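User: Can you recover a sequence for this backbone? Please restate the input before giving your answer.

Assistant: Of course. Working from this structure:
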């Protein structure tokens, strides 16, 4: 596991240690055990108990893990449904932006490839004689040479 994820798990473990027991009951014990086993052992986490999570200096990975924990285990059914819909809309927007960005490049490449093919088609076709026919022709020129 990458070091950044181990640090994120250490931050998540520290935050979970300050969390209310009612909320911790909603999170599966297997996940809590996974966090404790895979966290960075030698990393010192600086989480302040009285400060909200938005104001804490934690990694993006830790924020993502906490968001998934909230969405999958802590929030209610209606809020979970709303969060999933919002996430899907955001993914669609990102996908559209990628398609618009790369569609232009794709069209340009397609046009460039078409132009190159046309250039190739305009070149004259050279007929290649067999190597032995070339030798025979040279020999004929030497022997049938007409001196005037």
């Amino acid at each position: 596991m990458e070091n950044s994820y181990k640090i994120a798990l250490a931050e998540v473990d520290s935050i979970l240690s300050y969390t209310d027991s009612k909320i911790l009951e909603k999170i599966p014990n297997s996940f809590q055990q996974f966090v404790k086993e895979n966290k960075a052992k030698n990393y010192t986490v600086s989480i302040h108990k009285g400060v909200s999570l938005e104001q804490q200096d934690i990694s993006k990975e830790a924020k993502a893990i906490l968001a998934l924990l909230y969405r999958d285990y802590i929030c209610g059914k209606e809020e979970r449904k709303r969060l999933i819909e919002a996430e899907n809309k955001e993914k669609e927007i990102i996908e559209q932006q990628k398609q618009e960005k790369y569609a232009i490049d794709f069209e340009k490449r397609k046009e460039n490839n078409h132009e190159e093919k046309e250039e190739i088609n305009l070149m004259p076709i050279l007929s290649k004689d067999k190597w032995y026919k070339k030798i025979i022709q040279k020999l004929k020129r030497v022997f049938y040479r007409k001196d005037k």
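That completes the design. Residues 77-122 form the longest helix (46 residues).
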